[in-house]
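A.,

Following up on our hallway conversation. Structure tokens first:
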């Protein structure tokens, strides 16, 4: 059950990050992938900058950095948009 909850949280946070970066037509699977990549990027960036995790939630013994995940997924989507040459509306 914990894995399902983690995937749901990843989908929600990845969807929020993608929406902040201007991409609004993602499916559930893509939001999960963005949430997982965003969690890795966000945690690495916050550790490198020495910020730490501002807001975390714990599911099944796993701590999820909420703000870092949203920021990481938004940065990743923005980077993909730049590389793909996608224009914002």
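Then the amino acids I'd put at each of the 89 positions:
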């Amino acid at each position: 059950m914990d894995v399902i909850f983690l995937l749901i949280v990843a989908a929600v946070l990845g969807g929020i990050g993608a929406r902040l970066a201007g991409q609004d037509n993602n499916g559930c699977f893509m939001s999960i992938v963005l949430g997982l990549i965003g969690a890795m990027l966000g945690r690495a960036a916050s550790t490198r900058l020495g910020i730490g995790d501002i807001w975390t939630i714990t599911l099944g013994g796993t701590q999820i950095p909420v703000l870092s995940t949203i920021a990481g997924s938004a940065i990743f989507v923005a980077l993909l948009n730049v590389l793909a040459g996608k224009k914002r509306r």
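Residues 28-49 form the longest helix (22 residues). Curious whether your intuition agrees with the design.

B.
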